[in-house]
Amino acid sequence: MTQQVTHLPERVGNPAEPLASVNVLLGVSGGIAAYKSAELVRRLRDAGADVRVVLTENAARFVTALTFQALSGHPVRTSLWDESAEAAMGHIELARWADEILVAPASADLIARLSNGHADDLLTTLCLATSAPVAIAPAMNQQMWAHPATQANLARLRERGVRVFGPASGEQACGDVGRGRLLEASELVAELAAARGPRELAGVDVLVTAGPTFEDIDPVRFIGNRSSGRMGFAVADAAARAGAFVTLVAGPVHLATPPRVTRIDVRSAREMRDAVFAHVARAKIFISAAAVGDFRPQSVAAHKLKKSGASTLELSLVQNPDILAEVAALAQRPFVVGFAAETEQMEEFARAKLERKQLDLIAANQVGSNLGFERDDNALLLLWPNGREELPQADKRELARQLVARIAQLRDAVAS
Ligand code: CTP
Q1: CATH of domain 205-302+314-415
Q2: Which atom of ligand 1 is nearest to the CA of 337?
Q3: Is the pTM here over 0.85, yes or no?
Q4: Separation between Cα atoms, residue 108 and residue 145, nearest integer Å
Q5: How far, in Å, from the CA of 293 to the mean position of ligand 1?
């Protein structure tokens, strides 16, 4: 039975924000333009980004950590050797946290050190330790900018994929006129947003299920499965990063809710189904990543079952609703994506599932023998009515990003 929709939760986030859900690590190096970075923090936050700031030792001579702490809402780090800061969020964790590193202003010295791969302070270490894209916004005297050493360093950084925003030309703090001015804060935000590429699901409502379900046997026992929920949470995160309004119906897992995702916790398959049907009317895309238990005990014992000398125990199980198939059967249905965890004949079984459940797309993965569940990486085979795509072994976050891109592309094709 479909639950009556009374009210839907407020949508979280604003798709008009060009950097919604983006974690930006702002590095500030020592130069007079450092004061402009305070404004940049405001602009980045206005654009939806979560901003953490790292000052170099020289930057801290021009501007104070307190200013940036107040503006970013997070503690500011200046040193690699700060024990309490390392205990709170270690530098490697910080490097992983970042979706983008933006160094603004980037002084001639900082550019030289980055180009040589130095890691002798916190900011340069972070730039080496991150897998996130790094962008620099140079600011310096026009002679220093034009110097062949600086230009060679920049060329080397560009070659390695570092993006260079600006600098602009104009009057400089030192009185010179020429190239070397830091871009304006709004220009830097626009550059960063443009560099991140299209937000394929801006403003689209996406409903995701994730994790296992637990089917109670008695007050202390249940039937569950090994799903960690990581893939589904990564998908919810990727959809939110692509600009979607995401509702995540999560089975019992201990995972942090991704930013800007509305989470509904459930335990059993039937609770999951009720939560899904309470939200599906608004959804334009439904992604069923949960490992829903196919069966549940016919009845839940009110008291703990006793051994009472028995050597065997029989449990009578009944079938759970197939949430995915029910959503796919709706007259007004969203774009429907299922998952298939298979131990053998993956493509054949997954394509059969795609057809039987009338899905728009299925993401198949091989499980068993140390694959799939409880791991941070995975490989997926995407199948849809007229196509297939192999997503090779990668971190689940990266796979989720690729999956979301494919969903957005197929959905656009269906809609047009
Ligand atoms: N699913 C669901 N509700 C269920 C069972 C599965 O929504 N009660 C969804 C899962 O979230 C997943 C897909 O269906 O997206 C996986 O289906 P699965 O249970 O593996 O397929 P079956 O058709 O049951 O095939 P089998 O168990 O034989 O592999």
Answers
A1: 3.40.50.10300
A2: 15
A3: no
A4: 7
A5: 8
